[in-house]
Amino acid sequence: MNALSRREMIQASAATVAAVALPGSVALASAPSQDNITLRLQADPRDYQEVIDAYAGVAPNVTVEPVSVTGIDHAEVATKILASLAAGTPVDIGFAATEATQLYAGEGLAMGMKDRLLDQPDDLMEYFSDVSPVLVETDFYEGDLYQLPRDFNAANMWLNTKLVGEAGLEMPGEDWTKDDFNEYAKALTGLGPEGDSFGFAWNNGLWGGWLPWIFVNGSNLLSEERVGGGEWLWDTFYADDPNAAGRGGGFRWPEPQANNAANVEALEHVVALTRDGYAPSVERGFAENLSGFFAADKIGMYPGGGFFTGFLQDAGMEPGTYDAQFWPWWQSQRHQLGVGALWILIGGSEDAAWDFVKWHTGRDVMEMIGFFRVTRTTPARRSMCTAERFPNVSNWNIFYDTVDARPDTGPIPAPVFSIELTNIFTRYTEVAVSLEQSPQDTLDAMQRELEDLYARNA
Amino acid sequence: MASEATLGSGRRNWLPSWLAGDTVQGIRRQRMVLGILFLLPTLIGLILFVLGPIVVAVAMGFMKWNVFRPPEFVALKNFARLFQHDLVGNSFSNTFVMMAMTVGMLEVFAIALALSVHRFARSRLAYFFRTVWFLPVLLSGVSVAVTLSYMFHTDFGVVNYYLGVLGIDKVPWLVSSDVVRLSVSLATVWRNLGFTFIIYLGGVSALPQEILEAATVDGARGLKRLWLITLPLLSPTILFATVIDVIRLLQFFDEPYVMTRGGPGDSSRTAVMMVYDTAFANLEFGYASSISVVLFLIILAVTGFQFLLSKRWVFYQ
Predict the structure, then answer these.
(1) Strand A148-154, strand A336-344: pairing
(2) Given pLDDT bands bounded at 50, 70 and 90, which one contains residue A288?
(3) Strand A37-42 to strand A62-67: parallel, antiparallel, or no bridges (unpaired)?
(4) Which among B174, B259, B263 has the least Cβ separation from residue A427?
(5) Nearest in space to A204 (alpha carbons), one of A283, A273, A265
(6) Interface test with A, best of B175, B258, B266, B278 (most A CBs within 10 A)
């Protein structure tokens, strides 16, 4: 008898566990069919192989084929998905962060889930009880739900506690203000082994760029309103949840307001940080690029969600040298949010895809996903947000409290044309933070281009 | 046992009569068919992957198409729009500026390198230099651009670190619209120099030694010999290399896309980036096609102009 390899053993165990434990918990819409189906799933096989192997035990006639799509940010990933669609090789189950949720839904690509959820409410009752309504509302579009939240990240503030200690400061409290932040930024500058640290660093993007400052300054890049509808979900799954009160059928951003006074003030704030030497030059990239510098004590504070835990672990940061806190108060403490989830392509194998997506919401399934093992994103399930998930982060509870204890947290503005919106936002931001144009002039120009964008997409 | 003649006729039995004859015409026809058969895979490839996409792109330039809905014929609207679109004009202008800088540096450095390395032609050092200078060409453009964007980071980059050691202030390589095109061009030169260098090395190796020696005997040395003898002899190679480089660099994409995404603002946005963003970010495939058609015509015109000018300065022996 041949000895099983470790990989085969893990696969067999996962498949057995899944086969024994899971089929009883969900009813598969496509179960009676024995036709072989291949589902193309947008996922990195390194994160999803165990899930895929387990699903082979649940639905032996369904082959899940992972399609890995990478990008510098979620907008670029969406761009590549659209390119694959144009090339005639779409995925059956895609992944969308908030940047692309309305894009796929609004362009008629993603399947609305309302009817299926109302058909089998019991199957998902436990799931919704474990997921904040703040996250669920983000995945609505015009009254229908297009995704079941898998993970999220709100922009919290990470602090290098080694530098905080060197500056003779304590970790700030959860009610700290923008003025406190400025004091920290000054104090954390010029420290570290080579005396060249920056108090604060950020990346230029729609999520986690300077948008959090717009939010806490009581504004938004685009005007924001709640769409009516959605009672079918709130009444069914969140009847007893006070945080669900007043929620609707998603968000709408009817017009741009880039150059309003609050936004100009927010941009002036971040430009001043760079101009005064408390923040480094703001260049393209995402958190991976700067986690190494944070770990090397060259950055004092950085905007990030729970995902940064894994990045700092990978960067070899020592326990007890970093922690997180809520974003500081300004006019408010409203945090910005992005939610990630799977969506189903209309016209593909919708039944089989729905079975997979529904099964995938199970806690045991989510525990198999690689990026929850070394935390590279925050689980949407409350019960998965534990101290163990965020090792060495004393304030680990703030990640989920950002949606539970601060339910005014809202999504980044991401209408159907969010990719183009992101490009406009980041392009003009670059001009302002490179000190080549005043914040007012920059935002006036951004506003004109956003108005053109709205006119083209009217 | 069958005779050879029988075998011969047996072999030709399956051929149609117009091809089977042993006449001169029959043999010509056979050769022609054989030639076509050999060419067929390449022709099919060209039609499917070159000519076909060109035709579709031109046709798409007259359409409005966003992938989700069927294409709609809009006549010349896309072309009219692009001539009024500042961003398109800006991206073409950036492309020309960066192409000119990059081609200028590429040709000068590559000729200098080729002439230097040629001096070691008979030693093992020639292999070493050829390999070393060609190595960057083998690297992926994206990985080079990612690495260089770290190196060029204003505050954390190694380039500014060493400039600081020399007492030079930080240069905002990628975040100043005055500097960014130079930074991107330098990155492109570093990766592409080996390719142009190899072309020139071939050209230098083929220079007629008797003319060079005669020039030396007549007293032409150093820069004078380079300017009056070597470069004119090398002019066909210079024409070839510049045509190739201009065509490649008018399609600038990898380095600026990865290093700056066209920023800051739009100061390093190139024409091909404009095509990419218009198609895949804005989902305006028709408009993107019209920009690419104009870019194609510009490349065609520039190349034609290069050949026209070459009559004045290229010296064929």
Answers:
(1) antiparallel
(2) low
(3) parallel
(4) B263
(5) A283
(6) B175
The interface predicted TM-score (ipTM) is: 0.78
pLDDT at residue B286 tops 70: yes
Distance from CA of A285 to the nearest CA of B (A): 9
Torsion B237-B239-B242-B247 (CA) sign: negative
- DSSP annotation of B50 reads I
Taking an 8 Å cut-off on Cβ atoms, the answer to whether B155 and A282 are in contact is: no
| Mean local confidence (pLDDT), A403-428 | 94
Q: What is the rounded CA–CA span in Å between residue B202 and residue B187?
A: 24
Q: What is the pLDDT of residues B168-220, one digit of tens each?
A: 999 999 999 999 999 999 999 999 999 999 999 999 999 998 998 898 888 88
Residues of A in contact with B282 (CB under 8 A): 417, 419-420
Chain B residues within an 8 Å CB radius of A75: 281
CB within 8 Å: A436 and B259: no
Q: Do B281 and A298 touch (CB under 8 A)?
A: no
Task: Tell me if chain A has a CB within 8 Å of the CB of B71.
Answer: no
Contact B263 A426 (CB under 8 A): yes
Are A393 and A158 in contact by the 8 Å Cβ rule? The answer is no
- In this complex, which of A85, A108, A436 lies closest to B264 when CB atoms are compared? A436
DSSP summary character for residue B280: I
Cβ <8 Å between A426 and B261: yes
**Average pLDDT score, chain A:** 90
Measured between alpha carbons, how far is A397 from B209 in angstroms, rounded to an integer? 79
A134-169, pLDDT tens digit by residue?
Answer: 999 999 999 999 999 999 999 999 999 999 999 999
pLDDT exceeds cutoff 80 at B47: yes
Of A83, A417, A426, the CB nearest to B280: A83
Q: What is the pLDDT of residue A16?
A: 38
- According to DSSP, the β-strands at A140-141 and A93-96 are unpaired
Selecting from B68, B153, B280 the residue whose C-beta is nearest the C-beta of A283 gives B153
Pinpoint the alpha helices (H) of A71-132: 74-86, 98-106, 114-119, 121-129
What are the tens digits of pLDDT across the range B96-138? 999 999 999 999 999 999 999 988 767 778 888 888 999 999 9
- What is the H or E stretch that residue B46 is in? helix B24-46
* Percent of chain B surpassing pLDDT 70: 94
pLDDT at A447 over 60: yes
Nearest-CB residue to B264 (from A109, A298, A434): A434
CB contact under 8 A, A423 and B176: no
Confidence (pLDDT) at A8? 46
- The answer, for A423 touching chain B at a CB cutoff of 8 Å, is yes
Burial degree of A217 (CB within 10 A; 0-12, 13-18, 19+): buried
Residues in chain A within 8 Å Cβ distance of B259: 284
pTM over 0.80: yes
For residue B155, the distance in angstroms to the closest alpha carbon of chain A comes to 6
pLDDT band of residue B28 (cuts 50, 70, 90) is confident
pLDDT bucket at A34, cuts 50 / 70 / 90:
low
User: Which single residue is written with the structure tokens 């490009």?
Assistant: A423
**pLDDT for A370:** 95
